[in-house]
Prior knowledge:
single chain, about 200 residues, mainly alpha, 7 helices, about 0% strand
Amino acid sequence: MPLSRPRTKLHPTALIHPLGENQDKLSLGLGRLSPLAAQARSPLAVSAAGDRAAPSPKMMENTVFMSFTFYSTILILKMYVIAIITGQVRLRKKAFANPEDALRNGGLQYYRDDPDVERCRRAHRNDMENIFPFLFLGAVYSLLDPSPAVARIHFFIFCVGRIVHTIAYLLRLKAPMRSVAYGVAQLPCFSMALQILLATTPYW
Length: 204
């Protein structure tokens, strides 16, 4: 007659936690792995936290670009001022470029040209022909890591030259004041263009 094995009495907690000690070991192992996982993720987390803590872009740390931004803003504001002056001269001289504006201000006889208005328009057009190329050249030049002092001299000369040119144009100063101001303002533009070409020639 075969011997029967003695029955083992199960503890009630074994039915609730069938894994028993193995579950505890698994939890302990995962607990030990969690610091390693956190350490593996830490560079990304630190990088993301650093980006949130320092929202300023790299461009704002470029002192040459900040100087360029300052002088460019002055020049853009100067162009706005000329546009406002042109409008005021039109109203004062009653010389309108559109018939509807003339009808509103007295009649179609004021739909005409005026030498003073045209002078303001020429000054504004000359600004667009010179300041817009400067905005491109100055922005690219700022990325070449030039000397801050030398770059500031470039921007300053151009800005002052354009301001003097506008004053000479609007106030009808004696020649060759306007031409000299124009020529002086072109020197830093040619200098920046040459340096940009020298820096980018290897990549043509």
